[in-house]
Design a protein that fits this description.
Length: 183
Amino acid sequence: MKKAESVVLQVQAFLDFKRKERRSPITIRFYEECLDHFAREGKWPPTKENVLDFLNHLVDGKQYKPRTPESANYTYALYFRALRALFRFLYDRGAIERNPMQGLKMRRPRLVLPPLPSPEQLAQVQKIRCQRDRAIFALLLETGIRPGELVALREDQIDWERGILIVNGKTGPRPVPFRQTVH
């Protein structure tokens, strides 16, 4: 069997397995895009060196020009996750002798904090007549919490003295400080 046929069949088996696990169509599309790219340009059989070469090729700017260093690291992390899942699947089923992702560490994308609201933004918020709406906009601008997190916020999750919200986000509860201006 030729390299291209082999990789395509392996990727297709992985995608079929993920569909049987009832993964969302968005997740399946994510895997398809990343793994199709690897099937076209990656080397087979996979080794740590081949995988690292492919991942670095994504962000080195030769064929793919990232907009920023942050977007390059984000792309690297996305492909890393997809390849890790594929190779774990293939290794567990005996399709490959070694998992090339074993021992590799993912480059984490740098988190960028939202900028503080500008004086102009705060002045616009102060023009809002309804006190409730003004508080909502000020809290969203000040803390960077998601609108859904704000809607789910209860009064017992607000520590007025310390100026901290306990927000239930995607990854569980987290403390979010707020300033006196929002108080």
